[in-house]
Structure formats: structure tokens, C-alpha cells
Hints:
By secondary structure, this protein is an all-alpha fold. Helix content is 73%, strand content 0%.
Amino acid sequence: MDAETLEFARLALFFAWHVASTSKLAAQLLLGMRDVTAAAFRSATIDCLPDLAVTEAAHLTARWNDCAPYWSALTRAAAGPDCAELRRIQLYGLQLAAAVRLT
């Protein structure tokens, strides 16, 4: 595993821990986190996050990895000048996250 992936995992886990620790519903609404995962983050201490990053960085994948049209559209919109198009694709991502929660 490369240093950049590990650093991203550390940052992402710290952010997830902070959001889950701040409010019970924030992690579910902002990150699409399941109740059991949010509860695990709330019960964890900040000291355990670096070790967790080392073990979990190898498991990182893009959400909806099998949805190439979404990622292609997001990449095009992020590289382009149209902020409204980027926001539209981002909102589509939120719809995908909500749909997953409904199943």
C-alpha cells in the first residue's frame, strides 16, 4: 500500500469518526453510514484510528465501483467549467446513496 492511500485512509477515518461522534444522525445523513457502523465509531477512541487506517486502507474502493457512467460523468463534470453540471452529478450521487439506504 502506498503512502498516499494510507494518508487518505487516516484522514477519511478521522473525518468519519468526528462526524459520527458529533451527532447520532449526522453520520447517517452526511456519509450514508449504517447505525451499527456509526455506533462503532462513537465507541472508538481517537487513538485507535491510525491502526485502523493501516488495516483498512487495503479495502478502499470507489463507492458504486460498478457504475462506470456515474464516475465518467463526475470526472467530466469536475474537469469542466460548468459548476451546475458538477452539482447535478453530485446530487445524482446523493440519490444513489439514498437508494442504497432504502434497500
